[in-house]
Design a protein that fits this description.
The structure is a single chain. The chain folds into two domains: 184 residues, Rossmann fold; 217 residues, no CATH class. The chain is α/β, with parallel strands linked by helices and 484 residues long. The strands form five sheets. Strands 4-7-10-1-11 form a five-stranded parallel beta sheet. A three-stranded antiparallel beta sheet has the order 12-14-13. Strands 2-3 form a two-stranded antiparallel ribbon. It has 21 helices and 14 strands.
Amino acid sequence: MTAPSPVIPVPPADLPGTLGELRAAGHRYRSVKQELRDNLLARLRSGADRFPGIVGYDDTVLPEVERALLAGHDMVLLGERGQGKTRLIRSLVGLLDEWTPVLAGSVLNEHPLHPITPASRALVAEAGDDLPVGWLHRSMRYGEKLATPDTSVGDLIGDVDPIRIAQGRTLGDPETIHFGLVPRTNRGVFAVNELPDLAERIQVALLNVLEERDIQVRGYQLRLPLDLFLVASANPEDYTNRGRIITPLKDRFGAEIRTHYPLDLDLELDLIRQEADLVAEVPEHVLEVLARFARAVRESPSVDPRSGVSARFAIAAAETVAAAALRRAGLLAAGSATDGVRPEAPVARVGDAVSVTSTLRGKVEFESGEEGREIEILGHLLRTATAETFRARLAGLDLSGFTALVDDDRVIETGELVGSAELLRQVGTVPGLAKVLDRLGLGDAPSPEQAAAGVEFVLEGLHLTRRLGKDVTDSGRTRYGGRG
């Protein structure tokens, strides 16, 4: 399995087309590890971004990865699910040369100046400087295999092709072999995801690839000096218990690097902003609630810490909240069309986050004693995250104008299908609203939908800090009133 590439890049026309032209251009052969080292050093010296799109690892994981690359060490990344291990592995391809010469038709991507099979060496000797040269883009120099129990040695290394035997070739002829994924990624980066899930007898097949750089198929050895950078990922729990990396294979990896979840709230927010595909506007204070929620779930004693809570949890939560806002706008559009009212723009509110407690509980592994309480636990953690965000964002503001809204047994109704115009009509002019919206980053001239999102956040925060009462009606509307 290789990373998908929607379009195979076309080499520039000015690249050398023959072996003679390649030599005349001064091209020299470098191993993959030399290539990675040289290009990483060039980016370090220029200050360019070495790993685009990787968030939260600048001071922890990436320095270790860079040291491994500079040392020429194959590496294994250990970390719980959703820590960006695969994203980091795939980003290594960006450190390869954009284009590299290959022998045309070689299944092993052999370099014209460094052929490794007998047939290719004979071809180079026969054609000389007239040998045609092909060019391979770096995006095509990445191979990846998800380790599954049914993975075979043939999948990874190769097997004898019976059709070629039937054509008259002998078993000792390398041409009889159908090469597997690892040798086909020669002169590139090959990744094994979830390595401990690979059967131990299959892991043995990788031993020579990592150290001696040769392969063995069906009882005879091929002395192929494979040029690879091998990297694997593993969950630490699997690494020690459910599955394991066999000791000789662990010993052959030069670097073992631990990954982690975002260390602080700002990094969690950066990750959500970068990765979430939002179909509606989600204000910053709502994103912060979701980021705090994800961190609270991760730290909860009711959640199995060995499983972890993926970064995808917060990303999916943001996308779900945006979808709830889009649904509200769609449902309210029918009424606005007949009433001649401006259509509702989709802007998420804090109340939309309630839906994630049921839709995302499958992403969390709870401790065995918490069975049946999953939604209750997530709901409590969401309320805690909302209260923390309320205090962090609006501390020190005079919110008496909002508490005065429910004097004399008045109530303010909001909810999933309450439009912004209806909510703002109930609220009217509130002293201090402008300062609240400014603190929430909604600007000097927020839209009605943004203002409604700010008002609902304040009402919910005042309820969670025991300054307002709250009741949910049978129709799903939320009513905020006095504490009495």
